[in-house]
Amino acid sequence: MKLTGEEKRELLEGLLDAYPSRNTLAQLLALELDTSLDAIASDGPLKQAVFEVIVWAEAQGCTEVLIRKARRSNPGNRRLAEVASRLLAAQPQPEPLPNPLPPSSLTALRRAIVAAFDEAELAIVCDDVQEELRASGVVLQVSLETWGGTAKESKVLNLIRGLDRQGHLPVLVRVVRSHRPNLPV
Question: What pTM, to 2 d.p., does this model score?
Answer without folding.
Answer: 0.52
